Amino acid sequence: MTDNSNGANAQNNETQFAVQRIYIKDLSFESPKAPQIFQHKWEPAVELSLNTKQTELGDDFHEVILSLSVTVKTGEEVAFIAEVQQAGIFLIKGLDNAAMHHTLAAFCPNILFPYAREALDNLVIRGSFPALMLAPVNFDALYAQEMQRRQQEQAAN
After folding, report:
1. What mean pLDDT is reported for the chain?
2. Residue 62, Cβ neighbours under 10 Å: how many?
3. How many whole angstroms separate alpha carbon 60 and alpha carbon 101?
4. CA spacing 20 to 30 A to 123: which of 69, 71, 139, 157?
5. Gyration radius of the chain over CA positions
């Protein structure tokens, strides 16, 4: 007779990752100087800020929100401000704390970024501006930099 409880425990400890849903949580566009801004020479200065947020939903489900905010100026005038919160629900199971933190802070945002970039491009085009075509972001490198910064802070304290 075999011990089925060991097999059940092995299955329960198995690593699992699955995208359950990807969706826009919030979307905003503002062009405060329209229509006069369209008469200016188009020399855009782009300022991008990004942020991530994670929420545990229970039963190994996690919501990850990638927020992108873009302010574009031409000269001193703000041409437009576009913001998107691209979110996803992910099933993540069987990871240790370090791997879970990396998955939520880097791997999931890497999945969400192309969706957020497309949403921003579509939004900006609908505002009658050229597409942003944001360059890809390496969330793994950003995560590594943040971990290194935290280690240096801890060493200093």
Report:
1. 91
2. 19
3. 13
4. 139
5. 21
DSSP state of 34: T
How does pLDDT run across 39-89, given as a tens digit for each residue?
988 999 999 999 999 999 999 999 999 999 999 999 889 999 999 999 999
Q: Is 53 helix (H, G, I), strand (E, B) or coil?
A: strand
72 CA to centre of own chain: 20
- Bridge partners for 72 per DSSP: 46, 80
Q: How many residues does the chain have?
A: 157
- Going from N- to C-terminal start, the domains of the chain cover 22-147
CB 131 within 8 A of CB 121: yes
Give CA–CA dist 19/22, Å, rounded: 8
Angle separating helix axes 139-156 and 108-126, nearest 10 degrees: 120
3-state secondary structure of 143: helix
CATH architecture of 22-147: Roll (3.10)
